[in-house]
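Hi Q.,

Before the meeting this afternoon, I wanted you to have the zinc ion prediction in hand. No need to reply - just skim if you have a minute. The sequence and ligand are here:
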Amino acid sequence: MHIAQNIVRYAYVPFMLIVLPVSAYLLVSNGYSYAWLALILVTAFASAFAAEKIAPYFEEWTDHHAHGDTGTNVLHTIAHEVSVINGALLIPVITWLFPFEGIWPTDWPMWAQLAMAFVFADLAFMLIHYWSHHYAPLWRLHAVHHGVGRLYGFNGIVRHPIHQSIDMVIGTAPLVILGMPVDVALLLGVMISLTLIVQHSNVDSRLGPFESHISIGRLHHLHHVNWGTEGDCNFGLFFTIWDKLLGTFNEKPSREITAKDIGIDEVPNFPRHSFVEQMIFPFVYKPGQGEPDRYAKSNKTPAQVAKIDSMQAAE
Ligand SMILES: [Zn+2]
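Predicted structure with the ligand bound:
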């Protein structure tokens, strides 16, 4: 088991962020059907689950059944993938709306186009993320992503669909208007999905010299702590350089982060087990005014309180 743990600790991130993206690239650049990209994503989720079982960062976050949120996660996955597919379908519409000859460097090798698109999207997502923590209407939507009390592979796509759409429109529409080809857009989407899965995976990855340069693992745990505003740092999707430039990079939490330190401090009873409630959440949550009555235990029957308590005890 020790050997397997060490393999996962060192191989998980390179597998997810080098082997899988390169495989996706080779499939698309050699003209294979886009459907193969679904296989890449399924492999990524399966690998994340396996890695979380073998070498978890926090044991307390691994028992999906005890957390009782599997159904919610499945619905979030469907909502996420539908919006990604919608985004891809919108590309021809946007190209039709902006019919000028794009300035996209289509004569560059595809890997160079993809690298440029990824760096741009990484910066754009970081800025949207920063504003999502500093501008109340956006925070209400983004809070759905922060409400759950643990981090794991699925967390990256636990988002409100409205926030997801804002991310996609601001983060990638400029690239499409500039003329980004569909092949590059789909590969960019795969790379962003893989990054989100790795960023939130509960895997004890060892990053060596890259640790303070990529925004995953401990750095991202610090972003998710429920200690007031201390988590308002490390907004990056992948590179930490944007946070370093903006002055929002923080490597050292004020105390050690434990498995129970994740979430939103003013909403301890966030509806983690209901997809529908999570969709309603941004419309009933008023930041800075405490927990909405709807979620306070005092408004629940004893049986409902007992259920919440037993689920929280499992976490
Ligand atoms: Zn955030």
